[in-house]
Amino acid sequence: MLFVAVIFTALAVSYGWGMRGCVIGGEKGALLPGALLGLCLAFFMCDGEFSYLYLFFAAVGALSTFYGGTETYGQTMGFVLHPEREGYQNKFHIGIIGVFLKGGLWFAIAGGMLSLLIGTLSGEYYSATEYTVLFLLIPVFTLIGPKIFNSPYDKENKRFPKIYFSLDRAEEWGGNVLLTLAIVILAAVNKDILALGAVLTGFVSGGTGFAGGLILFRLANHGTKKRQFFRKLNELHMIEGWKLMEHIFGAVAGGCLMLYFGLNSDKISQLLSKTDLSALPLSGDRDIIAGAATVLMLFLSALLYAVRAFNEKKGRRYDERTYEMFERPLWSAFPLILIFMGSESAAAASAFVTVCYALCEKCGVEWFKGRKNEKTMRILCFILFILSFSYFLSCLVTGRKISTAMLIILYTFMYTLPCIPHFFTSQRKKERKEKKMSILRFYSGGGLVVWNFIAQSIIITLFVCFYFQN
User: Fold this and answer.
1) Is residue 13 within 8 Å of residue 253, measured between CB atoms?
2) Considering the entire predicted model, what is its pTM?
3) How deeply is 100 buried, as exposed, middle or buried, from its count of CB atoms within 10 A (0-12, 13-18, 19+)?
4) What residue segments make up the domains of the chain, in order of their start?
5) pLDDT along the chain (470 residues), means of 10
6) Contact 173, 102 (CB under 8 A)
């Protein structure tokens, strides 16, 4: 069973991470692999009498990986991938250390928060005051962390931080350092060994997965003096370096965290057996209010588009990070408080509505902007969100739970579908003609990774349908 759990989780998170790099990116794109990680943990750790907790794990998995998306790593990877370019020469170690740190922080936070959830739901470790303070401090961390670790930053005068993993780009991984330290301190004070181990496992596996995937990406681009295997596969269009890196990153980190939690399954079962949602602050009627509040936060964040347009019309242009600082707490920090207080409706809203909204917002507003099918995609995204929101409302009113089938369909096929028109563009057709490749060869290899996404979507969905029937 543990072997199956590790392999399936590695596949699911690998798919999620590859999809993040394809469709959305940033913090909102990281919701998908995180949700899949949490859902996998729920499938294998919370089966039977604890299966009602799957929404909590999917939601916290999504919202905890959200913060890693704030980290910029394009130039960091350049030290490994482009040693021939100016500024990148002889700095291979900077790229490897940088991605190890950033990947490590990404999954250290995810592993730590999922463990905090177990300790909180069981009532064994954390009080409402403790985790509320932790999550309220997250916006503070995102402000203070970069000032401590990622300053000074003055691109014009070429003044950069002492610990720096880019050429001239602003970095803000310092906020995640503070958040990780806060999770460690909270777990240590409460003697939560499970959480401390999850943070360490997430850090090592996330760093190793990102760095290892990046090395394979380099081999696909350059090979070595004696070995040109990956480079030849890349030239033959049989692999795609960027996606290879992302899939390795997700597979290693997700699989290792599943292995850690699986090895501690007895401890987890013991803790979850003490769970009593009715004893938590947001039970009964307050649960529905919390779910409505979570959705309202999404709509408030959507207003930022109107605010931005108004400011630009008035000639006031603000840095993108200014809007993000308002948006991030609405998407993650505040909903986490409601979920940890025991609101199943807030968990459902985060695991389903928030993840769906992230997809619809990106595809409807940004991803297809300027393309021939822009209006069509906007209409389809609007319809998709209205349908998902209506389904959520019906569950909220009738007391039904959002089914695992609906979650999986959203996480797989709904995310995979927008990739198809993206890859079959006139630009891709032009690229194929320039490379003088047949349609079959070009669209079945690394040039069209959507086939891989479709295959993974089918495997994940079938496995859940046949293995986890509820």
Assistant:
1) yes
2) 0.92
3) buried
4) 2-467
5) 92 92 83 95 79 91 92 91 86 94 96 95 90 94 93 89 92 94 96 96 97 90 72 71 88 96 92 87 87 91 80 74 82 94 94 93 78 80 90 89 89 86 71 70 59 86 76
6) yes
